[in-house]
From TrEMBL:
Keywords: Hydrolase. It comes from Microbacterium foliorum. Its EC number is 3.6.1.8. InterPro entries: MazG-like_dom (IPR004518), NTP-PPase_MazG-like_N (IPR048015), NTP_PyrPHydrolase_MazG (IPR011551). This is Nucleoside triphosphate pyrophosphohydrolase. Residues 37-111 form the NTP pyrophosphohydrolase MazG-like domain. The keyword Phosphoprotein does not apply. It is an enzyme of class 3 (hydrolase).
Amino acid sequence: MSTERESAQHEVPDPLRAAADTMREVRENCVWSQRITHRDLVPYLIEESHEVIDAVENGTRADLREELGDLLWQVLFHAAIAAQDPTDPFDIDDVAATLTEKMVRRHPHVFAGETATTPEQVLVHWNAAKAAEKRTRRSVLDGIPRGMPALALAQKVVGRATGTGADVAGAVPAGSVPRTEAELGDALLALVAVARSQGWDAERALRERLRRVEDEVREAESRP
């Protein structure tokens, strides 16, 4: 009986493999998908990523499951495009193998006998492994994606700049109102630095405040 059960379990298709196979079929047989390039997909990738964020912060479990699937589809789509590259092809299996190797390297406390009993110690191992992988980088700012939203980008830059000696964010003058766009930029950057020092997420803080604004606007619109 147990042998039959095990055999039946082995016959169940791998959902991830089925998704990858579905994507490959779409890429090969859908006339729209055949013409799509990596660059063409970027707007969809950004949109799907933000829909995942919205599901995390404001949605249901069903919303999150669906949006994670849509984001996974973007990864599979990029991999299917890459598999057809004439000079340097790779597929989703190569992507997964590279990811697994990286995560094993960055978790020596899980896979290599190192010790980490606190989140801070985990970060020490992570950052050491990451630094070893990125030896060719010349600046702490190398590798920061420039397409990040401005507040998130500012928080990343401020965080990377810590310890370099650069004064990238001053203090917010109490009660002052920016008089120029440049002064507004200075004030925003200083606020981002405050957010980072407090362990806050500046991008999320503004998103959540905007949601309250949207609720207030809709409430006002519904009044007779």
